[in-house]
Design a protein that fits this description.
Layout lengths: L2 H15 L13 E3 L5 E3 L18 H4 L4 E6 L2 E5 L9 E3 L9 E7 L2 E5 L9 E2 L11
Parallel strand pairs: 3-6
Antiparallel strand pairs: 1-2, 3-4, 4-5, 6-7, 7-8
Keywords: Signal
Length: about 140
Amino acid sequence: MNVVTNIVALASAAMLAAPAQAQFVKGNEAVSVRADGARKVETPPIPSATLGPPCKAVDPACWSLGAWLMLETADGLQECTELYARPETCRASTFGSLKRLRLWVVKVKGQWMQCPRPDIDSGCLSTKALPPVTTVQ
């Protein structure tokens, strides 16, 4: 093998071995960076109406029938069983390593939206509407 072939082979192996990078949505107004470099993250507000008990992310009954809601939180990108990211309803993202039905929850022009892909131009709908068609990603 020549030097170029070795470099390509090593780079390919490194990319396969490296963990997937967290996916973010460009233009998501819910995430901002302050002047000191700290991230500020907003999640959808919990409605004033009483919600039932949280549907825990570790409970297969909570997520086996629908898409995971991908939300940026203070802990980074999370897979959540609900929009509000209440404690125990989210877990670390598996995006890039496991294929699942996903909807990205983002804030665009002051409104909370759900997008079928991590792109605000992908046919996002209001979180108050029925969810858009999802694909396994």
